[in-house]
Amino acid sequence: MAAPEEIRTLRRTLAAMAKTLRGREQRLVDALAEERALLREVHHRVKNNLQMVGSLLSIQARGARDESEARGLSRAYDRVQLLALVHRGIYSSGAVRALNVDELAADVVRTLLQSRGLQAHSVRFHFSPVHTDADRAAPLSFLMGEAISAALDELDKDGALALFLAQDQESGEVRFAVEPQGPVAGEVSPQSVRLVDAFARQLGAQLGRDGARPSRLWLIVPAAA
What we know:
Low-confidence stretches: none
CATH superfamily of the largest domain: Histidine kinase-like ATPase, C-terminal domain
CATH class of the largest domain: Alpha Beta
Structural class: alpha+beta
CATH architecture of the largest domain: 2-Layer Sandwich
Order of helices and strands: HHEHEEHEEHEE
Strand content: 15-25%
Mean pLDDT: 81
Radius of gyration: 25 Å
Shape: elongated
Helix content: 55-70%
Oligomer: single chain
Number of helices: 5
Strand order of the largest sheet: 2-4-5-7-6
């Protein structure tokens, strides 16, 4: 049997070890909180800088010398705004692994409609909950934004646009589709086609297009590894 002094020594040792472990745990908690705060600050600053760049592009577009230059600057403005939306989504949620892509996609639609002065009834979207990490949310948002922009550019003033976004709960695959309805009034720019293709490759996604109407497309994005 251990002597009383040995027992007291053991208790003091265990108490000291417990105190050390609590101290280390608290330092880890504090470090994690600081890291999250810094991450939010970075995304907040990036979002603000992107909004400033977007404002400058908008001003340049209004002072453009011809329609082609104005359209190019307006598309650049849209792309900067989309990137700002991604950073705002990360900043407001503090998440990097489970962003609500469906909410982000709805913001993309509203932003593009607003930049073109179109009415909300021009677009019908059917979005169910979709979650992915920040690394995949950015290219996916850009792809959706570029695809929607192309469809709006092509759409007749009396036409409509249907959008679909969903995630398979078992496989985790994300499915996105753009369905323009009505006569064609404009053309899809080759640059938009190349950008959508590039983002699809980055995501490792399957992409299909209507050969007669390139703005009509569907996309299947595999779950993150």
